């Protein structure tokens, strides 16, 4: 048996998502042993000493640095994970492209269409495969839903409902971190959550062609952040000075799809009650289906006259068999990132785009941008198509099981 080759990983930013990327690279070797290469953790960059210490001691990176440029210059680094805050994505992604290294980047990829398109076009010009953190599309229930819809099991799709409702910013004492500042985050819940919803809708149903939207900011001021406050879970109190929230807490869109379907997409980061209610519903002339991340391993399907039946995901659905032996034993969030790591590694090895691409992120950014413009004008706005290698409209490959 041949010894697998090695792909050296460089990590930029050792926060929650950077740590998850690192674990996912290592887990991919366990769940996909046939991969022709193994990821090895070579170098991690973070300006925070604690992050660098964690990268070395807990994650096992060979080297650490405060400067991300050291990662890109390291000849042992073959692929790069970009897990920095939104306002650094563009600079770091373009530098990674200039270094000629494939990259896995979190979303929103850019702070808007301009940054996202420059990243996607730059990667395509250099012939680099990419991966973007649209992890919800990797749920086995979503893979099964996509197959049912694309194969006509529920007939012609008539309408779609997407609801990404969360409470992570519902507390008014939550600090005014970079996520609430337009020049650092771009849009608010549109880019943070509804870009996931737009990607899910396009992945299952097809491209969104036009939208009309409204947005609202319900918590207008927040406490200025204290030292080292970076997370949207960071808190202040009533005695702290306040600053203005510059982007939206809530968004609602009406949408048209290129197949003739219509849809409603809604998202909030300040909803009191839902913790992570990320739901997709697709209605057709012969049936409908419903999925909610809170019950990730279930798909509700109505394909007859007796209402919904709940389908527990099983080894013949998506990548389920890689993680669990039978229905009833559930997968988790981290498993979705392991699938994403696998798709990225396989994309690099085969030099073809299998993971969610930078062009997919650009496409989602076009939906977000159209929503922002529509909310300002009160009009329907067309969503431009993108000219990169999107995967939401790619042919179904089926499971990767060999």
From TrEMBL:
Q: Which Gene3D superfamilies match?
A: Dihydrodipicolinate Reductase, domain 2, NAD(P)-binding Rossmann-like Domain
Q: Which UniProt keywords apply?
A: NAD, Oxidoreductase
The record places domain GFO/IDH/MocA-like oxidoreductase at 143-290
- What does UniProt give as the signal peptide span? none
Domain named Gfo/Idh/MocA-like oxidoreductase N-terminal: residues: 8-134
Q: Which GO terms describe its molecular function?
A: nucleotide binding; oxidoreductase activity
**Protein name stated in the entry:** Gfo/Idh/MocA family oxidoreductase
Q: Which organism is it from?
A: Agromyces albus
């Amino acid at each position: 048996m041949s010894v697998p080759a090695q792909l050296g990983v460089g990590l930029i930013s050792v926060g929650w998502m950077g740590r998850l990327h690192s674990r996912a690279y290592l887990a991919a070797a366990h769940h996909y042993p046939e991969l022709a290469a193994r990821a090895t953790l070579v170098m991690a960059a973070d300006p925070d000493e604690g992050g660098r210490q964690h990268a070395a001691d807990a994650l096992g990176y060979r080297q650490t640095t405060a400067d991300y440029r050291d990662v890109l210059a390291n000849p042992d680094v073959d692929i790069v994970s970009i897990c920095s805050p939104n306002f650094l994505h563009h600079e770091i992604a373009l530098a990674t492209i200039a270094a000629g290294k494939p990259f896995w980047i979190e979303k929103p990829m850019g702070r808007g269409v301009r940054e996202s398109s420059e990243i996607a076009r730059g990667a395509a010009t250099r012939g680099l495969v990419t991966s973007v953190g649209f992890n919800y599309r990797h749920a086995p229930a979503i893979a099964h839903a996509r197959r049912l819809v694309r194969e006509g099991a529920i007939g012609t799709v008539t309408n779609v409902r997407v609801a990404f409702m969360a409470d992570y910013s519902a507390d008014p004492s939550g600090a005014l971190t970079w996520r609430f500042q337009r020049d650092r985050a771009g849009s608010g819940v549109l880019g943070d959550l509804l870009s996931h919803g737009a990607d899910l809708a396009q992945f299952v149903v097809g491209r969104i062609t036009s939208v009309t939207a409204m947005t609202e900011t319900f918590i207008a001021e927040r406490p200025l952040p204290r030292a080292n406050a970076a997370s949207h879970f960071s808190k202040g109190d009533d005695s702290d000075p306040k600053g203005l929230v510059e982007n939206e807490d809530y968004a609602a869109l009406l949408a048209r799809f290129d197949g003739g379907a219509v849809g409603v997409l809604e998202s909030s980061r300040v909803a009191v009650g839902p913790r992570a209610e990320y739901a997709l519903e697709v209605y057709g002339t012969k049936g409908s289906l419903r999925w909610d991340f809170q019950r990730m391993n279930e798909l509700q399907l109505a394909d007859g006259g007796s209402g919904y039946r709940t389908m527990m995901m099983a080894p013949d659905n998506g990548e389920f068999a890689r993680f669990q032996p039978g229905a009833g034993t559930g997968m988790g969030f981290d498993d979705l990132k392991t699938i994403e790591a696998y798709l990225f590694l396989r994309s690099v090895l085969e030099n073809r785009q299998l993971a969610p691409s930078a062009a997919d992120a650009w496409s989602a950014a076009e939906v977000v941008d159209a929503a922002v413009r529509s909310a300002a004008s009160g009009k329907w706005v067309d969503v431009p198509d993108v000219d990169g290698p999107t995967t939401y409209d790619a042919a179904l490959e089926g499971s990767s099981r060999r």
